[in-house]
Amino acid sequence: MVDFLDELEACVPALRRYARALTRNIDHADDLVQDCLVRAISRRGLFRPRGPLRPWLFAILTNLHRNDRRSARRQGAPLSLDAVPDPAVPAPQPGHMALAELARAIETLPLDQKEALLLVTLEGLAYAEAAAILDIPLGTLMSRLGRARAALRGLTGAPAEPHLRTVK
């Protein structure tokens, strides 16, 4: 049987990846993961091992991020000088530009759509698992994913997904 702390440690890279995608700030993401781990360890007695530890940790991290965003909204966000581009820097390669455009587009999504999209696409979670982490019905998750993908297509100018034709 895998020890709680060993399983917790195995989840850290995925938690960091998800936190970095949510926050787009390495320092803030690391703080978020640390807070998540502290909360998980301190509330270890609340974990009911009906399944893997990973969804429980993702739910904790997601809730902590939501709380941070609510708190930041009340305080206002400071402008980071790192976010201001240096005009003397030449444009990066087209692939990097497309990735940066997609990252900016993801940032414009409403938080509920962004969370759903990142859990399914970045973390590769099954729809049911992502819905459980976000504490929403599966249909709601599917709707959020559909709206997020449609918004990203509109923001990035990507073509619409081809529809399957019925063969008669």
Can you tag this structure with a few keywords?
168 residues, mainly alpha, Rna Polymerase Sigma Factor, Chain: A, Arc Repressor Mutant, subunit A, 7 helices, disordered C terminus, sigma factor, sigma factor activity, RNA_pol_sigma_r2, DNA binding
Note the beta-strand portion. under 5%
Number of strands: 0
| Unreliable segments of 5+ consecutive residues | 163-168
CATH class of the largest domain, please? Mainly Alpha
**What is the structural class?**
mainly alpha
Q: Please estimate the helix content.
A: 55-70%
**Cα distance, first to last residue?**
54 Å
**CATH homologous superfamily assignment of the largest domain:** RNA polymerase sigma factor, region 2, helix turn helix motif
Biggest sheet character: none
Annotation field: number of helices: 7
At CATH level 3, the topology of the largest domain is Rna Polymerase Sigma Factor, Chain: A
Domain PhyR sigma2: 9-61
GO molecular function: DNA binding; sigma factor activity
Pfam families: PhyR_sigma2, Sigma70_r4_2
Domain RNA polymerase sigma factor 70 region 4 type: 100-152
